[in-house]
Amino acid sequence: METVFTSVRDLSSKAGQEATLIGWVAKFRSSGKIAFLGLRDGTGTVQVVIARNEVDDASWDAVADLSMESSVRVSGTVRQDDRAPGGYEITANQIEVIGRADEYPIQPKEHGVDFLLNNRHLWLRHGRQVAIMRVRDEIVKAIRDFFYERDFVLVDSPILTGSIGESAGTLFSTEYFDLGTAYLAQTGQLYVEAAAAALGKVYCFGPTFRAEKSKTRRHLTEFWMVEPEVAWLDSEGNMRLQEEFVSYIVERVLERRGLELEQLDRDIGRLEAISPPFDRLSYTDAIAFLHGTGVEIEWGEDLGAEHETVLTEGRDKPLFVFDYPREAKAFYMKENPEDPRTVKCNDLLAPEGYGEIIGGSQREDDYDRLLGRIREEGLPEEAYDWYLDLRRHGTFPHSGFGLGLERTVGWICGVPHLRETIAFPRMMTRLTP
Ligand code: 4AD
Ligand code: MG
Questions:
Q1: Same domain as 49, residue 145
Q2: Could you tell me the distance, in angstroms and rounded to a whole number, from the CA of residue 182 to the centre of ligand 2?
C-alpha cells in the first residue's frame, strides 16, 4: 500500500485538505441519501459523512453492504467542525471495503463478563479497553524512565527456575529434561539480589506466575512485576524509594494520559493528591486500629483485602504498613533487631479499596539466620545454596520491593477487576483466548 495514510490523531495537519484514512467501522447509520460512519484507526475515531451524490457508484455500493468492524479505506476532505468529537470530520469522496466483517458478536448493549472475556480478542478494540492499554503503556514507560534516570541497571531474571521464591503453595511446575522439576518464577527477587552485589542498583521487570487458587478481582495467575533491588539500602530508605516511585508514575500518567483517564471517568483529583510522603503505620498499630473499629483479627495473621480497605478508608494517599510478623511473610525478610517477632518489611496499600500494590523488605543478610529460616520453612536447602553464597561472599545490607503492574494499572485507571488491566488475562478459570 503506497498511499500515505493520515491517522485520526494527525487530522489537524490536514484541515481543509484531501486525506486518505484506513481503519475499522466502529459506528454506522444510513438513510437513503446519506450515511455516517465512525472510523476507528487505533489513534482515535472520526466521523465520516458519505453523501450519495458526492461519491462514485462503487463507493455507494460498498456503503450499502457495510457491516460493523469491517476494515475500510476512505478518501475525502478534512473539515474542521467544533461540534465533532476531536474537532474534525471527513466528507468522503471515495470508500473501499478491505475486509467485510461477519456479524460482530459484541453489540452496543450489556454483555456478561464471561461473554466479553471469551471475545477478549475483539473486546480489546473498544474505547474503554483501548484507554486502559494506553495508560498501561505509559506506566511501563514511566517505570523504565524512573529507574534509568536514577542509574539502576535492568537485569532480566529467569522465568524457569529451580528454587521457590515466595511460597511453595502457589507454584506452577513443569518437567525439565533430566533435571527434574522446574518452576515458573513467582518473583525475580533472589536473582536481582545477586545482581545487586555486582551492580549496586538493579531491577527486573517481567511476567511472574502464581498458581493462586483464589478467584478474586485482585489475583491473576500470570502478572507483571517490577522489582528493584538496592545494595546498602535499609527498610526506611526502601519506603522512601517506593513513595517517590509511585508518585512519579502517577504524575506521568496525569501529564500524558489525561484524555484516557477522562474516557475512563477517573476522578483526576484523587490522583493529583498523590505525592510523597505517604503515611506509615506499623503492623502492630494497624492491628490495634482494626480492633478499635471492631474488626476481629489476631496479631500474627496476614492482612486480607477487607483489612486493607478498612485501614485505607478516608485516606487520600497510599499507606505503608511496616514490620509484619515473621510468620506472615516470606523466609528472606530481615529479622527486626528491635522486635524479633517481626521482620523489616512493608506493604504499600493503595487508597479507594485497591489495597496492596507493593510488597517490599530489607533482606536477611546474616548467613545463620537465613539458613535457619530456610530450614524452618522446610524449603529444599540444596536449591538455595547459591542464594546462601551471597551471604558467604561479602554479605551486605540490601532491600527491594515488587510492584504489581496490573494492580497499579487498576488503581490508576479506576478499574476494580484485574481482568481488564492486561490484554489477555490469565486466571484460574481462563486460558483462552
Ligand atoms: O508481595 P509479593 O508476593 O512480593 C514479592 O514477590 C517480592 N519477592 C517482591 C520483592 O520484594 N522483590 O508480590 C509483589 C506485588 C504485590 O504487592 C501485588 O501488587 C503483586 O505483586 N501481586 C499480584 N498481582 C496480581 N495477581 C497476583 N496473584 C499477585 N500476587 C502479587
Ligand atoms: Mg505481598
A1: no
A2: 23
Question: In this structure, which residue's CA is closest to atom 31 in ligand 1?
Answer: 404
Per-residue CA distances from 123 to 28, 54, 103, 185 (Å)? 18, 34, 14, 29
- Do 271 and 367 fall within a single domain? yes
For 276-331, the pLDDT digits (tens) are 999 999 999 999 999 999 999 999 999 999 999 999 999 999 999 999 999 999 99
Work out how many domains the chain is built from and give that number: 2
- 406 Cβ inside 6 Å of ligand 1: yes
Instruction: Dump pLDDT digits (tens) for 228-239.
Output: 999 999 999 999
* Same domain? 188 vs 330: yes
Indicate whether residue 360 lines ligand 1 (CB < 6 A).
yes
Average the pLDDT over each of 83-87, 144-148, 241-245 and give the range with the smallest value.
83-87
400 lines ligand 1 (CB under 6 A): yes
Answer whether residue 206 is part of any domain: yes
Residues 252 and 341 in one domain: yes
Answer whether 187 contacts ligand 1 (Cβ < 6 A). yes
Task: State which residues form the domain around 140.
Answer: 120-420
